[in-house]
Design a protein that fits this description.
Layout: E1 2-6, H1 10-22, E2 26-30, H2 33-41, E3 47-51, H3 59-68, E4 75-80, H4 84-92, E5 97-101, H5 105-118, E6 126-129, E7 132-135, E8 140-143, E9 146-149, H6 152-163, E10 169-170, H7 171-179, H8 187-203, E11 208-213, E12 217-222
Parallel strand pairs: 1-2, 1-3, 3-4, 4-5
Antiparallel strand pairs: 6-7, 7-8, 8-9, 10-12, 11-12
The structure holds calcium ion.
Length: 224
């Protein structure tokens, strides 16, 4: 899951980014309101952690602007106790949850899990396509009773491909979702992970393959 953290207190944002990374989230951090709105508007995030008091533009303005644009990414507002009256406004503006600072990281992680479970695009722990299954919890790819465990990047790639069967996933979109907007990952890096996945599909003898659409990206395809 790709998370955008918009928080101007750098001690807090550094600590949160580290904890989220340790918990297998991919995190982009920005410290100013306008950047927060720009990044969030890219609509590549699975969840946004949004501070209210921010330089340049406050979190509630960002939230309203996102919802007006039709961006429905789940948002957890991070708020100082003194801003609690703003929370009511925040919920009206389209926030999904809030946490008053200081909060425990355990509570934040639990709220994030709860929110992702009830998210509109939640598709369950098992994704499938033809004879292929992928268990998001255990990161296991399965076919005909055999399973194989994937690495984190492979798991993120196959999850995106399985959630978007029937369409070509552009290479640059996959890179943004997995490595981040500011990443300098070369395109041939994603090709390495695609080739790992292909080897595993081959090993499982799956009837599903990853098709390369030259100059565009990748698509899952079943051959019968
Ligand atoms: Ca702040």
């Amino acid at each position: 899951m790709r998370i955008l953290l918009v928080e101007d207190e750098t001690a807090l944002s550094d600590a949160l980014a580290e904890i989220l990374t340790q918990n297998n989230y991919t995190v982009d951090v920005v410290h100013r309101g306008p950047e927060g709105l720009d990044y969030a508007s890219s609509d590549i995030y699975d969840m946004i952690l949004l501070d209210i008091m921010l330089p340049g533009m406050d979190g509630l303005t960002i939230l309203r602007s996102l919802r007006q644009k039709g961006i429905s990414t789940p948002v957890i507002l991070l708020t100082a106790k003194s801003e609690v009256p703003d929370i009511i406004t925040g919920l009206d503006a389209g926030s999904d949850d809030y946490l008053a600072k200081p909060f425990s990281t355990g509570e934040l992680l639990a709220r994030m899990r709860a929110l992702s479970r009830r998210g509109s695009n939640y598709t369950g722990e098992i994704l499938s396509f033809h004879d292929l299954t992928f268990n998001k919890g255990s990161m296991e790819l399965g076919c005909n009773g055999s399973t194989i465990r994937l690495g984190l990047k492979e798991a993120q790639l196959i999850e995106l491909l399985l959630k978007n069967t029937g369409q070509v996933m552009p290479k640059n979109l996959l890179i943004e979702k997995i490595w981040g907007i500011d990443s300098d990952t070369e395109y041939n890096n994603i090709e390495v992970y695609i080739s790992f996945l292909r080897q595993k599909l081959n090993f499982l003898d799956a009837s599903v393959q990853i098709k390369t659409i030259r100059g565009v990206g990748y698509q899952l395809e079943a051959y019968v």
